Automatic annotation (TrEMBL):
It comes from Huiozyma naganishii (strain ATCC MYA-139 / BCRC 22969 / CBS 8797 / KCTC 17520 / NBRC 10181 / NCYC 3082 / Yp74L-3). It comes from the Eukaryota. It catalyses: IMP + H2O = inosine + phosphate. The lineage of its organism: Eukaryota, Fungi, Dikarya, Ascomycota, Saccharomycotina. Keywords: ATP-binding, Hydrolase, Magnesium, Metal-binding, Nucleotide metabolism, Nucleotide-binding. GO terms for biological process: inosine salvage; nicotinamide riboside biosynthetic process; nicotinic acid riboside biosynthetic process; nucleotide metabolic process. Its cofactor is Mg(2+). InterPro entries: ISN1. This is IMP-specific 5'-nucleotidase 1. The gene is KNAG0B03860. PANTHER family: IMP-SPECIFIC 5'-NUCLEOTIDASE 1. Pfam families: ISN1 (PF06437).
Length: 472
């Protein structure tokens, strides 16, 4: 009989990634058959390690070729090459047959080279009791993506170098519920990306229609960009925030206070103090921070075509579903349901401890969050107005939201906003985030539709991948 852990793990299909699990299964065979030393001698152990390393590398080279085959197949499919499609098995790539849920690959992935690098650092092939894990494969894919972009940079004019990097916020740039303070080690790498003429966007689920809240969460980054001596004004303006998945766009700006003098003369001292308290920076005669970009300048055509009635009906239905779940799961009354223009969600509130009189945050359990988000997702998928638009359901660690739109749309909007004439290619786009596992409850998942991705597990891991990505 399986252990309780294994039973529960296999029931949680929404937490899995079929492609990573498939690679993990391939690597399990040489581990089981060959990762055992028959002798205590060091020479025998070294021989075993080399044999296992060779087999791991060979398998990953084969997967690398399957990815190349899929890229070629998808390219021909888009060009309607009927002869090629007829020759292919059932009109599908080999990788699609092996992993039915596989998505799109925008670039080749040098998996063999990535494994040899990872193995040199973490000695994966030297392990005898622990087979290559989910996290091993996840990090391997990240390293392969880094190697690809490093190669493109070296190719010069003939390559397709990285042009845009986007980030999730919580657990990617800073701890869950935290903010980007000036001492955060990720900031110098964001500055370095901007200095290399790479556009940087923070694509977050946090949805606010004013810049002040974002400036408070990212105040360390805003001040570092302002103080930077290596960035030009044009490079600074390449820093943006896409909020609410794909609903609000803000761009970094700087301006001399004198330019705003006419408008400030009509403002009271109290009005100006409120502007500063909302997050806007003022220093050395300059005003700096984020300013909203008019929706008409960046919104995608498919989003414009959505019917307002469908959007309202979707949010109304999602709100009704959340109220039903709140009663069914007997959630605390201190966890209110919040409605915004483009989103609705259930959020943690505060409760007072009767013995001490102190307030503390109400927390929802992992099981409650997963029940809410999966029920909300499946319910909306069968709701006709919701099927005519796009929505995203996800849990943020202690809350659950339904947003209109998705990160794929937010990233595509940025690709067009930065290059209006010819949008940035998905093969030259990279999104870094922590929520890629389940389609129903992780909002970074849809980013895979718009560009290359890196699945990280902590802000420290983000720093590590950026260090390698920006290394000369």
């Amino acid at each position: 009989m399986s252990s309780r852990y294994r039973v529960e793990y296999h029931l949680k299909s929404h937490r899995k990634d079929e492609f990573i699990d498939w690679i993990k299964g391939l690597l399990a065979t040489p581990f089981v058959l060959h990762a055992v030393s028959h002798d205590e001698e060091d020479t025998e152990d070294l021989t075993t390690t080399q044999r296992v390393k060779s087999q791991y590398a060979e398998i990953l080279k084969d997967v690398e070729q399957l990815i190349l085959n899929k890229i070629e197949f998808d390219s021909r499919n888009q060009s309607n090459d009927e002869e090629y499609l007829n020759e292919s098995s059932l009109g599908r790539s080999r990788l699609n047959l092996l992993v039915p849920s596989i998505g799109t690959f925008f670039t080749p992935l040098p998996l063999e080279k990535a494994f040899l690098w990872e193995d040199s650092v973490k000695a994966i092939s030297a392990r005898r009791m622990i087979a290559p894990s989910f996290n091993d494969v996840r990090r391997l894919l990240n390293t392969a993506q880094i190697f690809h972009f490093q190669k493109q940079k070296k190719l010069g004019p003939t390559g397709k170098p990285l042009k845009m990097v986007t980030f999730d916020g919580d657990v990617t740039l800073y701890e869950d519920g935290g903010s980007l303070v000036g001492e955060n080690p990720v900031i110098p790498y964001i500055i370095k990306l901007l200095a290399c003429d790479i556009c940087v966007g923070i694509v977050t689920a946090a949805g606010y229609d004013e810049a002040g809240t974002y400036e408070k969460r990212l105040h360390g980054l805003v001040e570092s960009v302002y103080e930077s001596k290596v960035l030009t004004t044009e490079q600074k303006h390449r820093l943006t925030i896409m909020g609410g998945e794909s609903n609000y766009l803000f761009r970094y700006y700087e301006t001399s206070s004198e330019l705003c003098q006419d408008t400030q003369l009509s403002s009271t001292d109290e009005d100006q103090e409120n502007m500063v308290s909302e997050g806007e920076g003022r220093r050395e005669g300059k005003v700096f921070g984020f300013k909203p970009v008019d929706r008409s300048e960046w919104v995608l055509k498919q989003m414009i075509e959505w019917d307002e009635a469908d959007i309202k009906a979707t949010l109304d239905f999602a709100e009704k579903t959340l109220n039903t779940l709140k009663r069914r799961l007997m959630l605390p009354k201190e966890a209110p349901i919040m409605r915004k223009k483009w989103a609705v969600g259930i959020v943690p509130g505060k409760k007072t401890d009767p013995s001490t009189g102190r307030e503390y945050n109400v927390r929802l359990s992992r099981e409650q969050l997963e029940e809410i988000v999966l029920t909300l997702q499946s319910t909306l998928e069968n709701f006709p107005p919701a099927r005519r638009i796009q929505f995203s359901c996800f849990d943020g660690g202690n809350d659950v939201w339904c947003d209109i739109g998705g990160k794929n749309l937010g990233i595509r909007a940025l690709q067009r906003y930065y290059c209006p004439g010819s949008a940035i290619d998905p093969a030259q786009t990279l999104h870094v985030g922590d929520q890629f596992a389940p389609m129903g409850s992780a909002n970074d998942f849809k980013a895979r539709l718009a560009g290359c991705t890196m699945w990280i597990a902590s802000p420290e891991e983000t720093v590590d991948v950026l260090n390698r990505l920006t290394r000369d």
